[in-house]
């Protein structure tokens, strides 16, 4: 019954019509956009004036490919009834064509401005060439006159003044044209972008025709909402670490792109971490039967339910109003950010449109991590517990240390309450030295001979900064997978703080806080023994 009722209501909406009336042609502007990681929901609005009775409104110059089953239409005044809605495609309107022609003419005229600057530069260069030739010729004539005793100093001074003033004038024009050319080229680039944008709409456009009925004359607003896949946003994080204060300040920046064919001017912008799903539909619930459990009876089609979905209250919505952040539970699987005020998004895939949408500050632990078995470089990390209500979305992380930009790296999704870290790159103030003490082999035993391989290495670490440094050093010892192969740790080896780190067999970690200018040594020593008539095999892998 419910399915049939739902279908009946849909037929009523699509079939309702009012008497034909005048067809008013209107254009709309994008007023609101909800942008998802892939896709967006766009709302266009336009003021309309309706007389009492029936009217037909045609919305023109809409993006091509609109679907009547995916658009949503509404009128702000509740007394206005919507009737039949039709979506069709037709040639772009004369207004749109006129706008493209105007943009094309403006770009052409701007190219003429640049050509005029080129002509002026050529004229100035010719003047300089002429003045150089004049100076050389006059200099020769003056030399001859001086030799013959007929030199005129006043004429020399007049000629020099003429040369100086002419040269300065020509060069001044060349310098001024350089500045004008920069501005003119920028303006031409803007006009060409506008021309491409208007031309990129194609020869076809969608139009929406809707019948309206009003009980009285009214001024109201018509809203049209639809979905597009030509917009997206992603996260960028700035991690600014203050090593003296031992804290980190996280800035969450949203980078928005759209290539819908129009610039979004003065729009209300909302960003959501959810995925847009234009094909979602009502899902009819399946029946659930309960009975006593019988291990000898199998019910066809029954499957145990896995209740591992996150609780409703675990997800947050953050609404930005002015300079305040208001957080509240929404019971969804995403976070929504409403950008305050009105913003503009350029129609350019290469343009970054960034908005600060969240920020918080928390204490950190600066740790220098070293794995000398793989590299002698030390890496600085800012470790902290993510205490904010909203998760850190997966996105690029721009890291700053004491105000200095130290690189951009890929970030990962971090849930509230999880421990995470921000990599700050190579630590230049921690020196690492690897000092091999020599490897050797020996054979022992009378009845059963065995071969012994011993490795002995010293790692040396020096803190060159004026503050203490928390150091984590990672190493490894072999793990035997055969009873005939034995591994023995040397008596002089430095005991590690943790073994089998991250459940990886044989991986060890040494911890120490190094005082300023302190040097610490770690000794790693072990012996592997096996039958002398066998060959040792070393296999390096990461355990899952």
Model description:
- With 544 residues, the protein is of the alpha+beta class.
- The protein is 21% helix and 42% strand.
- The protein contains three helices and 29 strands.
- The protein has helices at residues 2-15, 94-147, 153-199, and strands spanning 23-26, 29-35, 40-50, 53-62, 72-75, 81-91, 204-214, 218-228, 231-242, 247-258, 264-272, 316-321, 324-329, 336-338, 343-345, 353-363, 365-370, 378-385, 395-401, 404-410, 419-426, 430-436, 440-444, 450-463, 469-476, 486-489, 498-499, 507-514, 519-531.
- The strands form five sheets. Strands 2, 3, 5, 8, 11, 12, 13, 14 and 15 form a nine-stranded mixed beta sheet that branches. Strands 21-18-17-25-28-27 form a six-stranded mixed beta sheet, with no helix packed on it. A five-stranded mixed beta sheet has the order 16-10-9-19-20, with no helix packed on it.
- Helix 2 (94-147) runs antiparallel to helix 3 (153-199).
- The longest helix has 54 residues, at 94-147.
- The protein is flat and about 100 Å long.
- The two termini are 52 Å apart.
- The number of distinct β-strands equals 29
Shape: flat
- The radius of gyration computed from the alpha-carbon positions, rounded to a whole number of angstroms, is 38 Å
Query: What is the average of the pLDDT values?
Result: 77
Instruction: Give the fraction of residues assigned to helices.
Output: 10-25%
Strand content: 35-45%
Distance between the termini: 52 Å
Q: Structural class of the helix and strand makeup?
A: alpha+beta
The major sheet is characterized as:
9 strands, mixed
Q: How many helix segments?
A: 3
Give the uncertain stretches in residue-range form: 1-22, 290-294, 297-333
């Amino acid at each position: 019954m419910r399915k049939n009722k739902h279908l009946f209501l849909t037929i009523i909406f699509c079939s309702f019509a009012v008497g034909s009336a005048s067809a008013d042609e209107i254009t709309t502007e994008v007023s609101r956009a909800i942008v998802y990681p892939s896709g967006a929901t766009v709302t266009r609005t336009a003021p309309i004036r309706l007389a009492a009775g029936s009217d037909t409104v045609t919305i023109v110059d809409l993006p091509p490919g609109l679907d009547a089953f995916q658009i949503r239409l509404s009128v702000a005044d509740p007394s206005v009834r919507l009737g039949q809605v039709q979506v069709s495609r037709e040639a772009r309107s004369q207004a749109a064509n006129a706008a493209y022609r105007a943009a094309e003419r403006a770009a052409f005229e701007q190219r003429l401005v640049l050509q005029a600057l080129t002509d002026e530069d050529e004229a100035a260069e010719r003047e300089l060439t002429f003045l150089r030739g004049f100076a050389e010729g006059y200099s020769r004539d003056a030399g001859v006159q001086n030799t013959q005793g007929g030199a005129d100093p006043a004429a020399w001074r007049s000629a020099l003044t003429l040369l100086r003033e002419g040269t300065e004038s020509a060069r001044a024009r060349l310098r001024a044209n350089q500045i004008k050319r920069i501005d003119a080229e920028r303006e031409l680039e803007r006009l060409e972008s506008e021309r491409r944008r208007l031309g990129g709409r194609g020869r076809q456009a969608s139009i929406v025709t809707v019948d309206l009925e009003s009980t009285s004359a009214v001024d109201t607003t018509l809203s049209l909402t639809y979905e597009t896949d030509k917009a997206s946003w992603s996260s960028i994080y700035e991690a600014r670490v203050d090593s003296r204060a031992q804290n980190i300040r996280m800035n969450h920046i949203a980078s928005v792109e759209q290539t819908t064919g129009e610039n979004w001017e003065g729009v209300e912008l909302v960003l959501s971490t959810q995925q847009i799903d234009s094909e979602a539909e009502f899902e009819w619930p399946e029946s659930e039967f309960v009975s006593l459990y019988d291990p000898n009876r199998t019910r066809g089609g029954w499957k145990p339910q896995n209740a591992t979905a996150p609780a409703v209250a675990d997800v947050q919505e953050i609404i930005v109003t002015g300079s305040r952040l208001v957080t509240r539970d929404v019971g969804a699987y995403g976070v929504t950010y409403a950008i305050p005020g009105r913003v503009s998004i350029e129609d350019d895939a290469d343009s970054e449109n960034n908005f600060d949408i969240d920020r918080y500050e928390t204490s950190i632990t600066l740790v220098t991590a070293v794995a000398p078995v793989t590299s002698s470089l030390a890496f600085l990390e800012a470790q902290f517990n993510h205490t904010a209500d909203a998760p850190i979305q997966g996105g690029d992380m721009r890291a700053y240390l004491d105000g200095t930009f130290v690189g951009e790296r890929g970030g990962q999704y971090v849930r509230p309450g999880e421990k995470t870290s921000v990599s700050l790159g190579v630590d230049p103030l921690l020196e690492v030295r690897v000092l091999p003490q020599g490897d050797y082999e020996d054979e022992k035993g009378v009845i059963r001979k065995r071969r012994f391989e011993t490795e002995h290495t010293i790692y040396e670490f020096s803190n060159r900064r004026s503050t203490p440094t928390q150091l984590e050093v990672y190493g490894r010892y072999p793990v035997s997978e055969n009873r005939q192969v034995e591994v023995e740790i040397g008596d002089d080896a430095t005991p590690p703080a943790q073994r089998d780190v991250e459940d990886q067999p044989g991986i060890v970690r040494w911890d120490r806080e190094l005082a300023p200018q302190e040097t610490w040594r770690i000794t790693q020593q072990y012996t592997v023994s096996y039958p002398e008539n066998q060959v040792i095999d070393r296999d390096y892998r990461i355990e899952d």
